[in-house]
Structure to design on (698 residues):
């Protein structure tokens, strides 16, 4: 087994695990060379599935885990009883230096709790953040964070999110200088909460190596006005879910519009393939691979309902992150932040 | 000129004023009997436009105003220099008891500032709130507030928003017992900010006359899980704009999907009427008439870009509100709130 990079995979996490996970690894193995996989879970089932995927089998090592954490298990319970599970072991492989990153489609709360407990936050980072990607009218996607790891964030934490989100976007999109903005209720300097205004001042005064564009509003997420949208976990979670809900509403209204009136039959025939295409484009699977940023280790979350190509996309994100200079980049900006005039965060402009 | 109800209309507010405004009044006059209109603005132009609308002319009184507040004027400037404008006079007519409600499609910030300055908040209401309506998968709409009048809201203010939003939804939809929930990042009691949890406790302890359903998440807005979604103005503004942005994104992606591939030509022919229908359904004009709630007077905001039927819809909202028992209903619940154990807001459950 050769390969310069090792990815630790939770073989049992997700709605259709382990089948989809093994298929996803097989797709990723075909697409990306030089990667080895540690596949944690039920060894018999995983080995059996690997029999159908020759290429994957050659680069996979199955690591037996005695149990699986269900999708409904609470985070606190997962911490108490999760030891020895495929998810726990997959995270531990990164902690022990056996793997460069971990990928799971399992229980988000349990995953975040275990990753945080085992890997701890990086030096200079107060709280980790969950970063996701959202398709835009420009054809690419916006990175948005935090979308739910924390309920609140002060100015300094928002700046840390900006630093981490920017490095994530560069690693995954290849865009050299991703633009960054804070989510607010208006573009003017005096708008919004004090923490957001203080974060903007802090980014400027700390002279971070960032293309900072000030404030953007909710509709700028889908417009793709900037490459990275920074907010607290409460607002980010509500924006993300409101967006998902609206996408489903519009698709439903459109389905209704297309299947009524004189052209109903033709409309329906046209509508279904178009709606399927749309679903692919909007589906979390397409931009699959949310990152739990700020820990001592790369932690990638695949959507629980992702199909094999969605899971392969999440593996692709893990690989890109592992091959990037993400850690060095954020360490450089975090140390600039640490040296910034302490007054900046508190004082009104 | 007869009529039991008088509505004060800013004849000069909005992107296509005064033409659209007069057409809107004409449509409303045809639909709703027993209403008189005070039409504030450039008397020559308004009278000229009314010549084309016999029925409207019979129920309109033109009130000359010497100036118009532009769409770009800042709120502070409107307060200093707005006296004598059509917007100012339209609000003043409610203050002076000449009209039961005011409707304008003009500058939102200026309108809110002038309405707040002239009408003041109702007794028992700490801060007014901007309430809007959002279409749902169930076919009706959700009332959401606050969508931007205030940046922050404490527990008591959130409860006041719940009381006002519920009465607004009943007045406009005719639904006897609208259901109400607080917007949060999860349905469980321990989720979210302390203010939201305290607001939930307060609603229960104050024994308000409300169908309170606890917490909902962002995707519940479009689902129509409850009839009234309550949040602070920062979160509400971002949710609303994220939703609008997503709706535009999905419509664009769908247009692209429908006009590519083998069925492209047929697809395009089908797509355009469907997208137009969709636009009508999602358009602010369809559910036009946001309310600036909590003032000593009914203040209805029409979308600046509304067409004549959109403006007529906003007039319809003003009429329904003016004919409802909105004031008595919220006064009853506000007094229950005032009698609630003071401890409820502060103490952890």
């Amino acid at each position: 087994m050769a390969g310069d990079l090792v990815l630790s995979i939770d073989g049992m996490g997700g709605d259709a695990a382990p089948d989809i996970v093994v298929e996803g690894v097989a797709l990723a193995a075909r697409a990306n060379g030089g990667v080895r996989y540690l596949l944690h879970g039920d060894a018999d089932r995983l080995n059996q599935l690997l029999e159908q995927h020759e290429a994957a089998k050659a680069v996979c090592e199955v690591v037996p885990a005695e149990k699986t954490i269900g999708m409904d298990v609470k985070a606190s319970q997962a911490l108490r009883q999760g030891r020895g599970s495929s998810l726990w072991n997959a995270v531990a492989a990164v902690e022990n230096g056996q793997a460069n990153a971990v990928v799971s489609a399992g229980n988000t709360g349990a995953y975040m709790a275990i990753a945080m407990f085992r890997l701890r936050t990086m030096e200079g980072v107060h709280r980790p953040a969950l970063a996701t990607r959202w398709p835009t009218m420009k054809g690419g996607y916006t990175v948005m964070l935090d979308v739910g790891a924390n309920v609140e964030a002060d100015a300094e934490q928002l700046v840390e999110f900006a630093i981490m989100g920017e490095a994530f976007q560069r690693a995954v999109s290849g865009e050299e200088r991703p633009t960054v903005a804070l989510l607010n209720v208006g573009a003017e300097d005096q708008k919004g909460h004090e923490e957001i205004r203080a974060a903007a001042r802090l980014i400027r005064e700390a002279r971070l190596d960032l293309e900072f564009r000030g404030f953007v509003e909710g509709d700028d997420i889908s417009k793709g006005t900037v490459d990275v949208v920074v907010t607290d976990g409460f607002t980010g979670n509500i924006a993300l879910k409101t967006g998902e809900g609206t996408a489903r509403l519009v698709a439903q209204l459109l389905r209704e519009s297309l299947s009524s009136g004189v052209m109903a039959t033709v409309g329906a025939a046209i509508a279904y393939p178009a709606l399927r295409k749309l679903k692919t484009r909007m589906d979390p699977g397409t931009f699959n691979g949310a990152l739990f940023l700020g820990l001592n280790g790369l932690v990638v979350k695949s959507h629980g309902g992702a199909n094999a190509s969605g899971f392969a996309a999440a593996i692709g994100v893990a690989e890109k992150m592992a091959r990037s200079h993400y850690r060095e980049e954020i360490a450089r900006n975090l140390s600039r932040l640490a040296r910034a005039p302490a007054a900046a965060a508190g004082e009104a402009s």
